[in-house]
Structure formats: C-alpha cells, structure tokens
Amino acid sequence: MPASVRIKICGITRIEDALAAAEAGADAIGLVFYAKSPRAVSVQQARQIIAALPPFITTVGLFVNSNRCELNEILAAVPLDLLQFHGDENAADCEGYHRPYLKALRVKAGDDIQAQIDMYPSAAGVLLDTFVEGVPGGTGESFDWSLVPPRASKPIILAGGLSAENVGSAIARVRPYAVDVSGGVERSKGIKDEEKIRAFIAACKEISL
C-alpha cells in the first residue's frame, strides 16, 4: 500500500461537486459516459467540469460497452486523462486510445480475481466493484473484501458501497492502491454532498498515515 491511498470521487455531474472534491483532497474525479446511468454527463457538461478543475486532478472517463467510433468522438472533445471500462470489454477493446485504462471487474463469491486481472495485461490498474446482476457499477453495495488477492499483479482500486464509515476498515483489510466512491458521498444520485466528501477523504487519510 502506498503511504497515502489515492482517492477518486466518481459520478461527478456538477462543477461545484468537482471543485469540492478537489478542495477536499481528491486525486481524481470520474465522469460517466453511459446514458443509462443517473450520473451520466454530456460532452458539454464534461468539458465545463474539466475546464473548472485546478491542476493535478486526474480526470477519468467511465464507459460501458461503448463502440470505438463513439468513444473516439468523446475523446476528441473531452480532455480525459484515464479511461475506465465497466462493461464486457476484453483487453483489445480497451486498447488503442492513447490513454492508460482501468478495467472494472464485478466481484462475486467463487471468482478467481487474479485470473481475471491476468486477462488485462495492458491495464494500468483494476477496479473491483460489487457484482449485481444487470448493473455495470454504482450499486452502492460492498463485496467480501477477503476475495481480493493480497498480492495482485496490478494496482487495485477498491469500489462498491464505500463510505466514510467503512472506508478505513476497507483500506486496512485490502490495502488498495486507491479507493473509488460515488453513492457514498451523495445527497441524491448524481448530486454530491460536500460534507460527505470531506468526511470520506478525511477517513482515508487517517488510516493511510
């Protein structure tokens, strides 16, 4: 585990929420380009949010089974630093965009997570989220953290049901490279709560020291 776990606030839809995350100490923000998500943003929204950010905040675009043409159009318009794939994409589907990528894996009992990680040798890291039938992510539910391999071959970004109340325990148990939160810092879907963001980040930093 790094001296300080990295923190991503995902599902940002408003400039004020992005700024609150940055000011509270987040390392990255996530923008959802998946029309079925209640946290989806348009290209115009994404451009405005990114333009308002201070320097050194990583901007992550989340995609679910997007076709290559659609994704390239978004990348031509939105200056994203990192791509996050939450669908059924194989490694080849995630490559070729001239940006590093994360592959999200939906974890359930009986999974061989390391074997799944090995299917994405070109990934910068792997995000572990909770498996819920028919839902690609953002479920607000946690999974059994004991399933995470202790010496995974890729940096682990832990997601799924995290909040200020449980993120310290999650970090202590999993020792991830980073944590990713969306619903756990919201007032309603897509609308973040500044106090919850601050509490979440404070809890991360307390356990990381």
UniProtKB/TrEMBL annotation:
<comment type="similarity">
    <text>Belongs to the TrpF family.</text>
</comment>
<protein>
    <recommendedName>
        <fullName>N-(5'-phosphoribosyl)anthranilate isomerase</fullName>
        <ecNumber>5.3.1.24</ecNumber>
    </recommendedName>
</protein>
<dbReference type="Pfam" id="PF00697">
    <property type="entry name" value="PRAI"/>
</dbReference>
<comment type="pathway">
    <text>Amino-acid biosynthesis; L-tryptophan biosynthesis; L-tryptophan from chorismate: step 3/5.</text>
</comment>
<dbReference type="InterPro" id="IPR001240">
    <property type="entry name" value="PRAI_dom"/>
</dbReference>
<dbReference type="GO" id="GO:0004640">
    <property type="term" value="F:phosphoribosylanthranilate isomerase activity"/>
</dbReference>
<dbReference type="InterPro" id="IPR013785">
    <property type="entry name" value="Aldolase_TIM"/>
</dbReference>
<feature type="domain" description="N-(5'phosphoribosyl) anthranilate isomerase (PRAI)">
    <location>
        <begin position="7"/>
        <end position="202"/>
    </location>
</feature>
<dbReference type="InterPro" id="IPR044643">
    <property type="entry name" value="TrpF_fam"/>
</dbReference>
<dbReference type="GO" id="GO:0000162">
    <property type="term" value="P:L-tryptophan biosynthetic process"/>
</dbReference>
<keyword id="KW-0822">Tryptophan biosynthesis</keyword>
<keyword id="KW-0028">Amino-acid biosynthesis</keyword>
<keyword id="KW-0413">Isomerase</keyword>
<keyword id="KW-0057">Aromatic amino acid biosynthesis</keyword>
<dbReference type="InterPro" id="IPR011060">
    <property type="entry name" value="RibuloseP-bd_barrel"/>
</dbReference>
